[in-house]
Amino acid sequence: MDPVGMSIRCPANGERAVDGTQTNIPFLQNVLSNGQFLRGTVDTQFIDEHPELFNLRPGQNRAQKLLHYLGHVMVNGPTTPLPVKARPSPVDPMEPTVPMGPPPSGLRDVLLREGPEGFARAVREHRGLLLMDTTFRDAHQSLLATRVRTRDLKRVAPFVAHSFSRLFSIENWGGATFDVAMRFLYECPWQRLQELRELIPNIPFQMLLRGANAVGYTNYPDNAVFRFCEAAKENGMDIFRVFDSLNYLPNMVLGMEAAGRAGGVVEAAISYTGDVADPSRTKYTLNYYLQLADQLVKAGTHILCIKDMAGLLKPQASELLVGALRARFPTLPLHVHTHDTSGAGVAALLAAANAGADVVDVAVDAMSGMTSQPSMGAMVACTRGTALDTGLPLERVFDYSEYWEAARGLYAPFDCTATMKSGNADVYENEIPGGQYTNLHFQAHSMGLGNKFKQVKKAYVEANQILGDLIKVTPSSKIVGDLAQFMVQNGLSRADVEAQAEDLSFPLSVVEFLQGHIGIPHGGFPEPFRSKVLKDLPRVEGRPGASLAPLDFEALEAELRSRHGDDITPEDVLSAAMYPQVFEEFKAFTANFGPVECLDTRLFLEGPKIAEEFEVELERGKTLHIKALALGDLARGGQREVFFELNGQLRSILVKDTRAMKALVGEP
Predict the structure, then answer these.
(1) Which of 276, 298, 367, 459 could bridge to 487 as Cys pair (CB 3.0-4.6 Å)?
(2) 488 to each of 439, 449, 497, how far by Cα in Å?
(3) Residue ranges of region Disordered (predicted)?
């Protein structure tokens, strides 16, 4: 039957491909799903009697949407901003060989069998040093601007499951990965967690939870944090590293309670700054950290973590702090996290292990060093044959690294080595966290201030002192960075800022920090600077989230369904609760362009070349064969026609050339 003079194919998988039109596909889909039409009982009044046929929803043809995306990138360039002009590697990494059968059992089996308390006992009783692999999160957050896609993680995941079953955990979620997945990669972060869990059933997963900030940059109602942790646990998360950017205990305890109530392993993290081995540093002393640890243990943490986000732990300080914590808590597992910005990360971790740490954080060699974590291969090799032997096969580490060395080439436009050629021991002076160090370096170069990065780092030190010498980790590190950039852009010194505090228009993040929006810093707020800036502005007393009304999840879900249809999941609701605007933009993107996660990374970033042929696997058993044929001339209205061959049939897509339109109106 051909009721509208068109070629209509109805494959068994439920997708309808309607050839020969570019304008009325949604209307035709409504007709094809109408019961009266399917029964063949229509007459000439059919359309008049069914106005709902004109309730048009975006088409669900995934192939057509992908062509639309590819055409858009070919005409207008990448949809995600590229910090540098480097091109993605044209060569995909080779997936390491994986043996047949299920992976060997690991510590996750202990966790599932004995629960968080039994898991913690097993970690403490374990002989040898345990490693957490940060390659799936913090390593690429530090080196590649958090841009690694789920596709490239999934390709190596089976190898990790089979080769590294003795890992303590894999850090693969939380932190910046949650919003970047939606904002720049156009992926669902929950889907990443689900798919990786299926591929790696034997190794515990670990996430970074920003206390009362969950995975965001602000405070949320308490019930939102609890609901988020429940969903994370249900979707495969095991260990929750809970921290607060100011070590503000009330915020940390809320996150700990949320993770614990969800059934997760609670790993309370003490954010480290200063130098406990330097007697001249009197604010963040050994006694300060020990007292904070006492409170976290009292609050019920299963594991205690030292989170050294800037890589400030020197070997002597590492030995002193870990040794004191081990003496104070002989049965509690200790976990140490650092960055290798100075180049001394391996030495600091070896000192921590010798002082009694049970677990340390590493990244695979090709994703280690500089602002990332110390090298996995180095730690495996240095402990081999000793009481700290990790038991990990070094040759498998080499294979793992080889994959990532090639995969890293796919992300060349985001690689910090484009502007930063080595680590720098000046981090001991400026105390800039690893990921932020990379971002500030990129920003300085993109603004033409690459030769002034030293000035930016000096301003960061002064901004930190103006704000009272803060613990610096997201979001407090962003506040210090915002003030530092404000000072550089306006040519202000510390003395200028403090003298003119009543008259300057400070960044909003600085003002909100002084109001108390993220908590109370150790030692209190800086005065009289705070009073000069705030004047009569309101101030938050106590834990910021305590005064927020509970989030109405039912109302939020109903609102989302009214805009996006009935395919909204409970996880979508949480994504919208954490990042309302980012989620809306993500849904709009997927409605227009479909499942871009199935594209190779090079194609995702820069699109195909003319005459390039490639395959896209939408799902198992459904593969598209695509060839990019040509770009048409710029037509009236600023559109170009992009021609493809899809499964042997000619297809064309109309794309608005935004770059040409900007040129016509003289925009920069």
Answers:
(1) 459
(2) 16, 10, 11
(3) 80-104
